[in-house]
Specification:
The complex is a heterodimer of chains A (955) and B (365). Chain A has 955 residues and is mostly helical. Chain A is built from 42 helices and two strands. Chain B has 15 helices and five strands. Classes of the chains: A mainly alpha (955), B alpha+beta (365).
């Protein structure tokens, strides 16, 4: 029985798609996939079959046989038919069924000649019957005469069409001569189906109506003809049952019963009854029916017989037939209709006053099919007979709510409350009933009513097992109601409910949410120990348990750090210890929780929690104040084992590894490890390389402080530069997100290394009038420029832009430098257009670095002219740059910049061929400022004197 | 009820109501009807049967038909046996057992039917969950009829599985030795019994030896179905030895060939195991769905017929349960989650109800 009931249950579940996605090609063998799909349908998995066929189609269904496409389409149509049958709205159901019918008729023509087409054709009478039944049911419920008439008319039209098609097919098959076995079988099927269609057609009309009787008589005639023509086939047995039903319709129920009895007699084909022991260990005599399908026919026939007897008001006979079925049939519950037989028995028992028997039958149905239709029907029977406990009634109410019969479900639940009032079950029954009522309202979308039901449940029955659940649901409903209304009332109810949850039901899993929120507030106030106390109340069964354990550990850690900052080292160490044990407990709790679910959301949260716990533990071990650095390596190993390849966590872990080496002073090991890591993962190595670079940089600086020009210092800086570059390259290349501060720092270090390794004295920062020495180490500046360029592309910065311009200047790339400065002063205008020949005083004061950079721009333009001979550069240098500089700066307050500007203005005039003006300008400087220029303080006296000598040669 | 299904069962019913009458007539006369794979039928009197085939007198001629040629036999002379078989065939094992117990004690039962009665009784006890009784009956069968055709498949396999289901590998080994001894004494080729030997070795966790045993059978067997069983055993051992890729390749090769249905069920179960393990570890809904479909092959398509071993069927049911359960766990949509959970429960309920002694009730091995 179970297996078949399972199938029925699965059909009920059909509308929802049970799997996230369909299967893949892996599930095919391209041999008997279609047979597999058919077997899935036969076993109650039409939805899975449809998905399988989807894959078959995608991968070229033809490979599975010539009929594959037809079978695929037919199964899909059958699935559509099943889905249509699930629609509650009868008119919509009819419409959908008619669509399926039309599609099936089209299918039969499209695939004419295939077995699938034949199977589909043989299924049409039942589909017509189903449509007719749907229309009949709709007619019973509807009152609008116009709609009723339209429905009847539509149904009649459909059946007339079906009958005409059926007759035509019979004639076509009759005309074939000679007929082989296949044609004979088709003809037999067609004739049976025609009679059956007539019977279904009759059901469209009121019982006893002329039309119904007329159609039944036609059906009887056709069945009679069929019986004359064919004998000993399965169709004859079904025909006998159908004839019985037709006879009942024409007012001959006794004859109808007799006809069905003929069908039931098929059970005697295997010999006399035999004695067996039943499941109750009592002996019984059963018909040794040797084919399961015949048992099913017998069951169907006996059910139809019972229905006729019921109409004949013969409950005793109904009971007798049902008992005969269950007593004399092998494995009676295996038949799909057996539960309906049992229901009829129970109804008849109840109708004849055998209430006890009715209850027993109902209970038997529940026992046989505890999760299916048997349980649903059985409970209704038991409830109606008053034979169940309040729990049985609650089950019935739940089933009604689940079936969207909300009013009935609510009514039964209210009945339970009334019936259990003043009894020992009052608390539990009352609370559960109100929970169900609340749920029913929620299903209907009536949040206010739902919240009231839940709130009443917890207020009236606070000691009930599910009171906490009721409170939580009430809070949820208030929250939903508040979302749309934003009313103070709801907010207060939510706060009140949450406080009550912690106070009265601290063990409820949802109480932990509230506890965590409270802990967060305490943490925000710096009260870590207070937060820990709250978090300790989170129960082990809570979904937030591991989160709470992690927060406890982190709170101990933070509390210890706070104590350390207050110079309370001993207390701090104690709390570091507590943090360590808490982190370990957290990790153990997470590991335990992992095995309980494979829900990806849960697993992902646990993964994140474990990462934080392990990372924090490693950091804790690395704290000198804790004194456990020896344990850090193992902690980092554990992190690497799980998250080394994680794009965000991997680099973080490597950083930690680098810090560990450095904090232990193991520079050689660190260098080797960073080199190895660089070969494996360019992004992960960035953090550790940066740490190592900074450590080497500092060591180099220390050496230079001890001894300027130290070779050891130089070596350290060269190594530092290499690791700086490794650390910053991912940001330069865009494979890691940029850290503007780090880019600036590293860029500046390369700029400085350039100054150092090119032998530039500490006093000089600009390329203006720099004369390169014998040392050549331009690569540092090349890298500095690369870093600056990458950084400026994302984060404009005037200081960095100046550095970039200077870097290009040092590299002798004046054209590039000029371009950089031009862009800079376009963004940062130093000259107010309203006073074109003077520098803007305010800007000068705010960004002093711009003044010298302005000079560098002029020099860059001038020196670029030597490269590209672009005279506009000289004009720009003379008019736009040097003139305002010289009209603004004073030789006594900005001597270096002033004399540099003066010198380069004269050189620009000379470059431009204006030797006379150049000479006048030199003389003017000597006459009005100083005959000896800067007196050699900034190196310009010698340069001016050389210029004067050069000018003399021009005249 | 649909007309489509009626057409489907019509042929069966025609046989039952029409052709069945002819058979009944032959049986009344005590004759046996042998239906052969070439669709011919021989009606005669079977004198004896053994592992090689049946010896039958047809029209005074003494013929021997090998089992490979025979599709089915309807034995004459005992309507009780036919009824009992009818019950067992329709899954009514509790109804079949008392009839078969009566026949077991019946001294004047046709000798040729006696091993059939014990074989069917053992199978019925096993399916009804009474492994001890099954072992006792099978032991009696092979003690009395060491040359019978049930030595390897059916009875022999069920006996070994009954021991293994009770975690009695040593007893299974001892029983197997008796089967070997009996077969040797009867002068019968014992190589097919090595399939069972491999299964016992598997049960003890000695996958290397089991694989070697299967390999030996595979190399020496000429019967394609024995070869296929050996190949399936090799694939299972590869999987147990963590050689998953090799195991999968073997399973895939088998599912695309025409091997016996139970071997196909085993191969799909093997694929299901592989995909399930990976799918659950990740977890990966696609892989779990594929695993589900693999197990469903054994649940709905390659199902055992009466008397055949049901271990692969039980394996498939358990696998389908596990997949539905895992899919339910990773599903975020509440409705789908519930459906999958229900389907998982239904599979397990079915396994528990129909195979109360199944080792798969506690999980896949």
């Amino acid at each position: 029985m179970k297996r078949r009931l399972i199938a029925a249950g699965l059909f009920l579940a059909l509308p929802a798609l049970a799997l996230a996605d369909g299967p893949t090609e892996r599930v095919l063998n391209k041999k008997d996939d279609i047979d597999f799909a058919k077997a899935l349908v036969a076993n109650g998995y039409p939805d899975l079959a449809e998905r399988l066929l989807g894959v078959v189609e995608k991968t070229g269904g033809a490979a599975t046989g010539p009929e594959a496409k037809a079978i695929i389409d037919l199964i899909k149509l059958d699935v559509a038919q099943e889905l249509a049958m699930k629609l509650d709205d009868l008119v919509k159901r009819k419409d959908e069924l008619v669509k399926v019918l039309t599609a099936k008729e089209k299918f039969i023509e499209t695939y004419k000649g295939t077995q699938a087409s034949e199977d589909c054709r043989n299924g049409l009478p039942d589909l017509y019957g189903t449509i007719g039944e749907t229309i009949t049911q709709a007619i019973k419920k509807l009152k609008d005469e116009k709609v009723l008439e339209a429905l009847r008319s539509e149904g009649d039209g459909l059946f007339l069409r079906a009958e005409a098609a059926s007759k035509q097919r019979i004639e076509e098959l009759k005309a074939i001569d000679p007929k082989d076995d296949d044609i004979e079988f088709k003809l037999m099927s067609a004739r049976y189906n025609y009679a059956r269609t007539l019977y279904f057609h009759s059901l469209l009309f009121s019982p006893g109506s002329g039309k119904r009787i007329e159609l039944c008589n036609s059906a009887l005639y056709e069945y009679g003809e069929f019986d004359l023509e064919y004998t000993d086939t399965i169709f004859n047995i079904y025909a006998a049952i159908d004839v019985g039903l037709c006879l009942k319709e024409i007012g001959k129920p006794a004859e109808g019963v007799a006809s069905i009895d003929q069908a039931i007699q098929v059970r005697e084909s295997w010999g006399e009854k035999v004695k067996v022991t039943g499941p109750d260990n009592k002996p019984k005599l059963v018909w040794p029916i040797g084919a399961r399908d015949v048992v099913d026919i017998v069951c169907y026939g006996m059910l139809q017989k019972m229905l006729i007897l019921k109409e004949m008001k013969k409950p005793a006979d109904v009971i007798a037939v049902g008992q005969d079925f269950f007593d004399s049939t092998p494995e009676p519950w295996e038949s799909p209709q057996s539960m309906a037989v049992a229901r009829e028995v129970a109804d008849a028992q109840f109708a004849s006053g055998d209430v006890k028997g009715s209850i027993e039958t109902g209970k038997g149905m529940i026992k046989i099919d505890p999760a299916g239709i048997g349980a649903a029907w059985g409970r209704e029977i038991v409830d109606r007979a008053g034979g169940g406990t309040y729990l049985d009634k609650m089950k019935t109410a739940e089933l009604r709510v689940a079936a969207n019969d909300l009013d009935r479900g609510i009514a039964i639940a209210r009945q339970v409350i009334a019936e259990t009032a003043g009894t020992a079950d009052e608390q539990e029954a009352g609370c559960d009933s109100l929970l169900l009522i609340g749920f029913a309202y929620q299903k209907r979308g009536w949040m206010e009513e739902a919240s009231l039901a839940y709130q009443t449940a917890v207020d009236r029955f606070p000691k009930a097992k599910n009171a906490a659940e009721a409170l939580v649901r009430a809070i949820d409903c208030y929250a939903l109601a508040q979302r749309s209304g934003k009313r103070k009332y709801y907010k207060e109810k939510i706060d009140e409910g949450m406080n009550r949850l912690i106070r009265e039901y601290p063990k409820h899993p949802r109480a932990s949410n509230v506890q965590i929120m409270k802990a967060n507030n305490l943490e925000g106030e710096g009260d870590f120990l207070g937060a820990i106390e709250v978090l300790k109340t989170v129960q082990t069964n809570s979904t937030d348990y591991t989160k709470a354990r992690l927060k406890i550990a982190l709170d101990y850690f933070q509390h210890a750090a706070k104590l350390a900052s207050e110079q309370k080292e001993a207390d701090a160490k104690t709390n570091y210890g507590l943090a360590e044990s808490s982190f370990r407990e957290t990790i153990a709790a997470i590991e335990a929780a992992r095995g309980k679910s494979i829900d990806p959301t849960v697993q992902s949260a646990l993964d994140e929690q474990e990462y934080i716990a392990r990372l924090s533990l490693a950091r804790l071990y690395m704290l000198p104040a804790f004194g456990r650095i020896a344990d850090a390596a193992a902690a980092i190993d554990a992190l690497e084992k799980n998250w080394a390849k994680d794009p965000s966590k991997g680099p973080e872990i490597q950083n930690l590894r680098g810090r560990l080496f450095l904090s232990q002073g193991k520079f050689d090991e660190a260098e080797k490890w960073v080199n190895d890591l660089a070969a494996r993962d360019k992004n992960a190595v960035a953090g550790p390389a940066g740490q190592l670079a900074r450590a080497l940089d500092q060591q180099g600086l220390d050496k230079f402080k001890e001894k300027p020009g130290s070779l050891e210092g130089e070596d350290l800086w060269k190594r530092a530069a290499r690791f700086y570059y490794i650390s910053i390259k991912p940001q330069v290349d865009g494979t890691a997100s940029q850290n503007a501060g780090e880019m600036t720092d590293v860029g500046n270090r390369f700029f400085s290394y350039g100054l150092t390794f090119n032998g530039i004295p500490d006093s000089r920062v600009s390329f203006v009038d720099w004369v390169p020495g014998p040392k050549k180490a331009l690569d540092y500046w090349v890298k500095a420029a690369e870093i600056y360029e990458a950084a400026l592309a994302q984060t404009p910065d005037y200081r960095m832009t100046i550095n970039l311009g200077r870097t290009y200047g040092f590299l002798g790339e004046y054209v590039k430098a000029a371009g950089i400065y031009a862009r800079l002063f376009e963004q940062e205008p130093l000259v107010n257009p309203k006073i074109p020949n003077r520098l803007d005083n305010a800007v000068q004061k705010a960004k002093q670095e711009l003044v010298y950079a302005y000079l560098e721009w002029g020099v860059s333009e001038r020196l670029s002219f030597a490269k590209d001979n672009d005279k506009s550069r000289l004009t720009r240098a003379l008019r736009t740059i040097f003139t305002p500089l010289l009209q603004t700066l004073k030789p006594d307050t900005s001597p270096e910049t002033y004399w540099a500007a003066r010198y380069h203005l004269i050189r620009a005039l000379m470059d431009n061929g204006d030797y006379k003006d150049a000479q006048l300008n030199v003389k003017d400087a000597q006459r009005n400022i100083s005959a000896t220029f800067d007196d050699g303080k900034y190196g310009y006296k010698a340069l001016f004197e050389a210029t004067i000598a050069e000018l003399k040669k021009k005249f | 009820m649909k007309s489509v299904s009626r057409v489907g069962i019509a042929a069966l019913a025609l046989f039952a109501l029409g052709f069945g009458a002819a058979v009944a007539q032959a049986q009344d006369e005590g004759d046996d009807t042998i239906k052969k794979k070439d669709n011919t039928t021989s009606v005669g009197k079977i004198e004896s049967e053994d592992l090689n085939g049946c010896n039958v007198i047809v029209s005074k001629a003494k013929l021997t038909f090998g089992w490979k040629l025979i599709k089915s036999i309807d034995y004459g002379g005992s309507p009780e046996f036919k009824r009992a078989k009818g019950y067992a065939d329709t899954g009514s094992f509790n109804d079949a057992i008392p009839l078969l117990e009566d026949l077991r004690k019946k001294g004047d039962l046709r000798p040729v039917l006696k091993p059939h009665v014990l074989n069917l009784l053992g199978a019925s006890y096993k399916r009804a969950g009474d492994a001890d009784q099954a072992i006792a009956v099978y032991s009696e069968l092979f003690k009395q009829y060491p040359k019978c055709q049930f030595l390897v498949q059916g009875g022999g396999e069920n006996l070994i599985h009954a021991y293994l289901a009770k975690n009695k590998a040593a007893d299974a080994d001892a029983a197997l030795k008796l089967l070997f001894d009996g077969a040797k004494a009867a002068g019968i080729d014992t190589s097919p019994l090595n399939i069972l030997k491999g299964q016992v070795q598997e049960a003890t966790g000695d996958f290397a030896s089991a694989a070697a045993t299967y390999k030996q059978v595979f190399d020496s067997a000429t019967d394609p179905s024995v070869k296929a069983q050996a190949e399936l055993g090799i694939a299972r051992c590869l999987f147990r030895q963590k050689k998953t890729a090799e195991a999968e390749a073997k399973y895939r090769s088998m599912v695309s060939r025409d091997v016996p249905p139970l071997v196909l069920a085993g191969a799909w179960n093997g694929l299901g195991d592989i995909m399930y393990e990976t799918g659950r570890a990740k977890p990966d809904a696609d892989l779990l769905t594929d695993a589900l479909y693999a197990f469903l092959r054994g649940c709905v398509l390659y199902t055992p017929v009466s008397g055949e071993p049901t271990s692969e069927y039980e394996h498939a049911l358990r696998g389908a349960h596990d997949c539905f359960k895992a899919l339910s766990e990773i599903e975020t949509n509440a409705e789908r989650k519930k459906i999958n959970a229900n389907r998982a429960k239904e599979r397990l309920d079915y396994l528990q109800t129909k195979f109360p002694g199944s080792p798969y009730i506690d999980g896949r091995k």
